[in-house]
Design goal:
Structural class: alpha/beta
Strand content: 5-15%
CATH class of the domain at 8-169: Alpha Beta
Number of helices: 23
CATH topology of the domain at 8-169: Rossmann fold
Distance between the termini: 53 Å
Radius of gyration: 25 Å
Length: 495
Amino acid sequence: MILRCLEKAPVDRWTDAGALLSALRAVEEPDKAASIASFHKTSIAVLPFKNMSADPEQDYFCEGLAEELINGLTQIKDIRVVARTSAFSFQGKETDVREIGKKLNVENVLEGSVRKAGQKLRITAQLISVTDGYHLWSERFDREMSDVFAIQDEIAEAVADKMKMGLSGGRSEGVPRRYTENIEAYNLYLKGIYWRRMLTVDRVSKSVEYFRRAIQKDPGYALAYAGLAYAFLVLHSYSPTPQKDLYPKALEAAGKALELDDGLAEAHEAMGVIKSHWEWDLNEAEREQRKTLELNPGYIWAHFHLANIQLYRGRFEEAIVGFKKAYELDPLNPAFSRNMSECYLHQGRLREAEEAIRNAIEIDPFLPMTWIFLGYVYLRQSRFEDALEAMKKDTTKGSFQELNLGIVYARMGKREEALRILDYGRERSQREIVSAYYMALLCFALDKKDQGFEWLENAYREHDIWMTSLKIDFLLDGVRDDPRYRSLLAKMNLA
């Protein structure tokens, strides 16, 4: 997006003109104007700041600066801040701010640019009304790198002051909290966040090293410990490293973050995920996520994790409310639509399940598990060929995709193909990690109950991430009366 910079005098003039246009519209369309004023006026999307430096590797800093502002603004209860995934989906695209406002349902957009040369910084920022395209505020900062925290404060204060619309308080609520005064540690932390989002083994592993280096620079950097904990949690979904080797590291890092700062929302979020996926303690997991939201009501991932906890417990309606809340804050994040679809799927609401999963696919057809879930929507309708076709498109290749295809083959009566995949999974499990949970589901689909429960016990011992679906998975409907199933439910605190 081409950034526009205006001097202070023109900004004031355009702001007055914008106010005049809004007043005229209110006369012509009072109901619509009232609706906009009550809902949109306090909504904002912070776009990733554009990297104007010669070094493309400075992208991490530009994204980090924008995200710090997002985190700060979410602290203001009367401002709706679009989450990072949706706001950053326009990165590198020449999209008009009016179109952005329409897609994200916001009235204001904050955009900017960063030019970094050595320790010199030039940061520009503009707050724009999407209704008329006028600048509500703009500023340029020529400072040293050591002033980056002060710049963040000034931008957040200016945006908060423009948007608070009469909210009381002294120092602006939107000023991002500082967790370190060490600029070097802060830079390393931003690099850790940047690489953690890449979702490949090598890149998430790289993020682990950056978080560790940030901690070396500042051993009291609680936020870096929380970032490290979550990097281990992300890594277990993409790495061949056994979960039993990763979760203790995540637990140690999250515990250290809470020891340093019990009021850190990110640390409680990480601990909540550990409690649900490693310790199977959903009561404590729920308490941790609610604590996260108490500390930061706009924390999008806490809403998501809390909804997943309700889903695991079979409290489908509560889960749907949570997923919808997450979707409202981050409408272009496909994970929220995907998991909402999973909820509808296990509840048996197949029309809504298909609608939600197709929305996720439209946003990102490469997101893992989207096509798998669409396949299961078809499977529950006995549309076997459609289920196979969908699952073959999923990006989760290898044994996981094969096991899901095997379940469909078994359900449609193609026993030989299903048995071949079962043998394939058993052979591969001797030399690499194969989901014991999905091996069990395939055995049950083939009416091999004893083998299925052996695999489920393995899944329990290995802390297979899919074991959280034990209570709700429709693929287990045929074994729910088996005492071995009820015993597992009890051991996982899901009875």
